[in-house]
Amino acid sequence: MLYDGYNAWDECPEADDCELIRSFLELVDAMVRDIQHLKAEAIRARYRFAMETDPERKQITTVDILSDLDMPHYDSLAYQEFSRICYDGGDPMAFKEFTDSMVQLAKGIDDGRY
Fold first, then answer.
1. What is the pLDDT of residues 7-19, one digit of tens each?
2. Which of 63, 66, 62, 76 lies closest to 31 in space, CA to CA?
């Protein structure tokens, strides 16, 4: 846990501030892609489980499969700044291409993108 007054730059005196910031942004971007992939894997697993437990899909819905998969980091100032710098303020976890792909996965249609 970071304490008040923590200065990350003190940890890396040999690194240029811009180099360090760029490195953090690249790390967050890689982690976002990992989260997208893991979210897709969770949806695939839920869909397969739903098909095994309710083959006629009378009880399980797309909403059920997609539920509780939201990410709690949207309110983070750091994430907002990352989104602003790397994606012109857009949230890569909410881009139409990604969300449409997740909805399709929940319907059993896998385009293999994530």
1. 665 666 666 667 7
2. 76
On whether the pTM is more than 0.90, the answer is: no
Closest CA to 99 of 73, 66, 59: 66
What ranges in the chain are assigned the alpha helix state H?
17-53, 62-66, 77-87, 96-106
The answer to whether the CB of 20 falls within 8 A of the CB of 10 is: no
Query: Could you say which DSSP state residue 22 is in?
Result: H
State pLDDT tens for residues 72-83. Answer: 777 888 899 999
Neighbour-count burial of 83, counting CB atoms closer than 10 A to its CB (0-12 exposed, 13-18 middle, 19+ buried) = buried
Instruction: Name residue, tokens 């291409």.
Output: 97
Question: Which CB contacts under 8 angstroms, 24+ apart, belong to 81-87?
Answer: 82/25, 82/28, 82/29, 85/25, 86/25, 86/28, 86/29
Name the token pair of 18.
């811009």
